[in-house]
Design goal:
By secondary structure, this protein is of the alpha/beta class. It contains 3 helices and 6 strands.
């Protein structure tokens, strides 16, 4: 999976847990957005500061499971489709 930080956005303390638990390769934002499924991560201010792109649905589901295990909440329901260009958007409670 590929990831990038969004320029100018604050990085929360829990970001180190994300990069420590999910195998990610750094890429530019346009390259990450080319992936099949996109996960956005919100910072404490409510901004999406990181996106993760998954080529396969099983990689996407593994990342989603890891984010849930870190205590993050997905604000995009299955019936919602994409929101802000993301298939899932996780944030701390």
């Amino acid at each position: 999976m590929k990831t990038t930080l969004i320029a100018g956005k604050d990085i929360p303390k829990f970001d180190k847990d994300i990069v420590g638990n999910i195998l990610l390769n750094t890429a530019s934002e346009p390259v990450v957005r080319e992936e099949l499924l996109i996960i956005g991560i919100r910072n404490d201010g409510g901004d999406i500061y990181r996106i993760i792109g998954a080529t396969k649905s099983n990689s996407y589901m593994n990342a989603v499971e890891e984010l849930f295990e870190l205590g993050l909440i997905n604000e995009v329901g299955d019936e919602d489709g994409q929101k802000e260009g993301c298939d899932a958007i996780f944030a701390a409670e």
